[in-house]
Amino acid sequence: MARRTSSVIPGFGLTLGFTLSYLALIVLIPLGAMLLFSLQLSADQWWALLNNRQLQFSLKLSFGTALAAALLNGILGTIIAWVLVRYTFPGRRIIDAMVDMPFALPTAVAGIALTALYAPNGLIGSLFPFKIAYTPLGITLALVFVTLPFVVRTLQPVLADIPKEVEEAAACLGAKPFQVFRHVLLPSLLPAWLTGFALAFARGVGEYGSVVFIAGNIPLKTEILPLLIVSKLDQYDYPSATAIGVIMLIVSFILLLLINILQRRIQPQL
């Protein structure tokens, strides 16, 4: 007779049921309802929506700027995380706390502040011969501001767990700085970097409050997907608004899935 083994975690069945129920109520049911609501559109309406030039441009703009901001934060966030973990200097705790400011600051307030700074007559925008606000560059800067904490906070604990002695030992054995980074630091940092990149990218795609002001909302120039959804809602075109949301979800899911597959394939090779 097989011996029954007890679960390590007491109440596993109850907690698992609560977890699945909570995820279904908070995530799956709303997404499923949005998908069902978008099915009110006929096949011809779906085809017309997908071939709409305004939607195609907003799709490219939203995902392009989110990707650019995530890549830029991947570089800047790594440097900031490295400085905060590896060095001790006056004001380090203040700078560390400032990283979380985009989380605490209302996105609309951030958008107004960025617009005031980077507008053609703003404090920073007036210093450049080209426009920053009301352009894709301004949108990218707003997304960089909003998504920076995702990369920094993802990399910080990983960097803190890497002992300095490992790097020093590699250097003592004759490894050059690039070799130390490639063979000692990169294997531990890359999975966390990809996670932070994916989080920043996902947040950037759906960001609205901090972008809507600095974008200028010019059709076929600076109109982002969330704004297009809001305009459809203002017109009481709920099926089209939910359909655009479904398109965003599908494209985001495919891109995030590819990032996760890349993360799984790279990790064993490092």
Overview features:
mainly alpha, MetI-like fold, 270 residues, globular
Low-confidence stretches: none
Total count of helical runs of at least 4 residues: 12
Identify the CATH homologous superfamily: MetI-like
Shape label: globular
The largest sheet, given as strand count, sense and whether it forms a barrel, is: none
Order of helices and strands: HHHHHHHHHHHH
Q: Which structural category fits the helices and strands? A: mainly alpha
- What is the first-to-last residue Cα distance? 45 Å
Q: Under CATH, the topology is which?
A: MetI-like fold
Q: Give the number of domains.
A: 1
The CATH architecture can be given as Orthogonal Bundle
Q: Strand percentage, roughly? A: under 5%
Number of strands: 0
Description:
With 270 residues, the protein is mainly alpha-helical. The chain has one domain (52-269): Orthogonal Bundle (MetI-like fold). 76% of the residues lie in helices and 0% in strands. It contains 12 helices and no strands. It starts with 11 loop residues before the first helix and ends with a helix. 27% of the residues are buried.
